[in-house]
Amino acid sequence: MRQKALILRLANTQVARLELGDVSGSAGEDLVLTSEVCWRASAFIHNNARTLRQDLSSAPSEKSSEDIEALVSSWTYAMADLVLSETAAPVLELAANGEQGQLGNAAAAPKRADFEFAMGANPYPTRSSSLMTARKSAPELKRPPSVPSSELMSPPSSSGTDAAPKGAGVPGLPELATYRAELVMLQRKMLEHIAAQSGWRAGWAAMRHRAPSKMQDITLDEDDDHDTTENQQETTSDYVASSLILPALKPAVASESAFQEIYERICDRAMRYYALATQSKSVEVIVGDLAMLRYQQGNIEITEEYIRNVLPGYAADGWNSTEAEVLSIYAECLKRLQRTETYITTVLDLLAKVCVRRMTRKLPHWRFEDAHLDTEAVDVSGLMPEICVMSIRLSHQIVRPMSDYFGGIVLDSEVRHHNDCDGFKLEFRFNSLLADELDFDECKARLVSVNDSAQEVWLSSSGPFCASPGTVKVELQSYANTFGPFYVDQVSMKSGKLVFSHEMQPRSSNPTLVLNDERPALIESQLHKRPFVFVYPPEQALDVDVSTAKNVQLEKPRGLVFRINSGWNEIEDLELRLRPTSAGLRLHLADVAGGKARNGQLEFGSLGQHTNATIEVPYTVEQATPDISLRFEAQYHTPKGIFTLSQAVTLRHRLPFDVEVDDMFRLDTLFSTFAVCSTGGAPISLLDANLHDSSVYEVESPPSMGLPMMVFDQAPANLLYKIRRKASTAAQAMRKDAPLALIMRYIASHNLIIATLKKDFTQHLHNRELGGLFRLLVPLLIERCKQLPKTMFEIAAILGQVSVPSYEDFGWAEIVSLLPDAVQPELSDALRTWHQQASHFKVDFTGAISDEVQGQITIPVEVPTIDFVHSVGLALHESEHDQPHKIQTLRAGKPLQASVSIRSNDRWSSRSVFGSSKSSDAHSPEFTMETQADPDTWLVGGQRRLHFRPSKEQASNFEITLIPIRPGIHPLPSVDIRPAPEVKGEGHNAQTAQSSFSCETYCEAAGKKVQVIRDVRTVKVHIQESSGTASHARPIAGSRAMTDSG
Hints:
Residues 860-1013 form the TRAPPC10/Trs130 C-terminal domain. By secondary structure, the protein is of the alpha+beta class.
């Protein structure tokens, strides 16, 4: 007691000043020392209360346990009240009441020497910092008007951190507020002990006292509710209250309502102190107690408001047991307030807590006694069915994660087909963690194509189903036919307006940087973890095969051929919707024969079982592209329901070969050479090629063209044709009828090889009684064959056999693993056997399969029109050897006279062919002739360059002089004729423009060569005499040879 008095006097507290007769109250107080007194007093009270209880229990005069607890509680309450009264500081009340203006004077600490304690509070002022600890503001409470709720704590600042509390700059104020709050809470605890003797409890103590300690089996029958309630309630007649209590506490225990009023007042005082000391968590605990008190009193609205403010704190701190109980009471308040949507979401949160704890601790899915399960202290039986029924009245759906309430969510990857109709089925399994049976309206699953994310397939349950606790199996079925790998994207179950959804696709929390087009390992691992289903139709299902038309006419739109096989379906009507996915692809549905086009789709009539139908859809492309892609969906009605078939296809648009034309004009004949080479690397077999006549031109083919022949990319085939004009009048010639038609029949080697392998592979599957997997394995075989290297097709075209890759190289193991276990061994053995037999597979380019895969292309060939064609002849007048079939011999340096003869006509002109007219100069244009020769070989004299006007009746002759100057075999000079530039205007205004006429020149002397020799008459050779053999003597340095020319 003396230490307390000394410290209080040193702290200059109000009580110490009153004892000394100082009533001015103007001197400042040292709150650090005052908080030291509260801290020491708290430890003193706890220790001495324990000692007092032991002494009273061992006293000679026996006392009841109720009297002992009453005496100890009364003494503790009185001592705490004494310390609180002696450490009362005006600055503390000013700070709590928000009177900031008087804090400066009231908090001025007296000047004193340093005073240190062996233990306890720090006597130095606390350091203020701009980095305040983030805290949540206290909720706005409903309390008497004398206690303004806005004074509990200051609101949060705009910067995101809480503002400093009132009086935070006063040294020792937070510590004093904290220790005084602990003493107030000690008083509340003692008051609760005394009131418990009368059977009165408040706050969380009352709620936990009424709740059972262990989970018990309960019944859902309404008749047993009354008995259960009676067993859980207690009467005040079971309690014995002691009369040995502090007189100041007797009004508080006079009645239960008086106890609750004092309890609330003490809570309010402690909460103010904790708020002043920025102890937000302690404030939330007290608010929770007040919420339970209001719930106990039946004030549902205020209870709901209190709980709504403290729930985020419970969730953030992970208080599972407390949060579950609070959620249970909060849900009950919402239900009584008829807030249906909020009630449903709260119950879902509560059930999620319970189910997650069950899943974590791996408990069974039925209820039993377990004292260690915190969340099971809340009775959640019947809640899920109740909210499912209530959700029907909501205007919108509530979506929750399925994994919060169900575990072991798996969609089986094994595809099962219907026995009598199209479509497929998958089995969906999950474990229900709920304690009740739950009726679901439907279950749906969404599959997304791996190759095309826009293609989706939905599966759904056949109808409502019931999910009992434990493992649940649901059969999901789809009436859609498709082919290819699909990711399991989403699974959802619906009950009322509640939707439980599960996303199968893993989500990446952080973005991944990709450099140099390399896929990071994280993405690869995610793709590998995604559930995967390979979907394929049954063998007898509707089949639609899409390919490009084999008969191609380049002047007309090309076609897409759809071959439809109804299978086992009795189709009443069929709608085919086509959607191009390539840029620039245009489908001309209005020009389709055999179907009715409407709203971008084709409508067909009925088809019987196993009926075939073929339609061709014309299409065009806006720009050259090697491939085209489209997506089609067929919806058809049968007596068994409505079915769909959807598929995305990519087809080759580029022709299997290219054709280049080289034309050579004569006066009355045109020689055209067609160079045919394959495209894409795979060779083609050219079966036949014909250039057909037109109304204007006639064609003469060579006697033998060597067809059929194999055409490669680097080894083109050359086809030469002779073209002449027909003897018809110009008035009868029409420009649209002038083009020739080059018709070629061919076989693409890769198409023949794939078709041959397909036929043999299909036959092998049926022989092994595996025809049911035909629609799965054959498309995969075709896709793998298209990816084979082009060199393999070239070798097959040359040798007549193809080397099929092995079972492992084809990647069959991954596909076989997706099938049922009973089928895998037999299928794997059948595939390995076929690959062994087809290791050297024969390919026949003349068999029945070649007739099915051969194609035909019709290419329109436009014959170019030339205004004038010139034929130039160059003749030498003198030569020593004038034999016609031998090379002429000329002497170097000897001038020769040569005549140039030019014959011209306009038989290949547009005016002559089609009767069109040009300007008046069209009959007498001017041309420029130039003799071109190698200057190191020939010297050209005379009119080397001149202008002339050709005449169709007679030839134009010109004389030139040629002098060969270099011995050897050389070609004769050539003559080039071009249209002369046109001069417009006269005098200084004359301008030269390019001529509008075209011409071709054929030099008859092109390719002819002459031999130029020196004119040698005598040769003198001086040989030095030597003793050696003359035939082996070498000339000395002074010897020389001389050549004389005459």
